[in-house]
Amino acid sequence: MTAVADTPSKGLLSRPGASSGWTSWLTTVDHKKIGIMYFAAALIFFLVGGLEALLMRAQLSTANASVLSADAYNQLFTMHGLTMIFFAIMPMSAAFFNYLLPLMIGARDVAFPRLNALSLWVFIAAGIFLYSSWLFGGAPDTTWVNYAPVQEVGPDPAGLTLGGDHDQRMLFYSLGLQIAGIASLASAINLIVTVLNMRAPGLTFMRMPVFVWMSLVVQFLILFAMPVIGVALWQLMFDVGFDGNFFRVDAGGQPILWQHLFWLFGHPEVYILILPAFGIVSEILPTFARKPLFGYAAIVFSGIAIGFMGWGVWAHHMFTSGLGPVANAAFGLSTMFIAVPTGIKIFNWVGTMWGGRMRFSPPMLFAIGLVAMFTIGGLSGVTHAVVPSDAQQHDTYYVVAHFHYVLFGGAIFGLFAGVYYWFPKAFGKFLNDRLGKTHFWLQLIGFNLAFGPQHVLGLNGMPRRYYTYPSGMGWDMWNMVSTIGAFIIALSVLIFVVNLVKSVRSGEQADADPWDARTIEWLSASPPPPHNYDEVPVVTSRDEAWHRKYAGGGGEVPRPVPAGASADHAEHGEEHHGEHIHMPDPSYWPLILAAGLPLAAWGVVTGLWALSGIGLGIVLLSAFGWAMEPESEPEPHAESEHA
Question: Quick one: pLDDT band at residue 11, thresholds 50, 70, 90?
Answer without folding.
Answer: very low
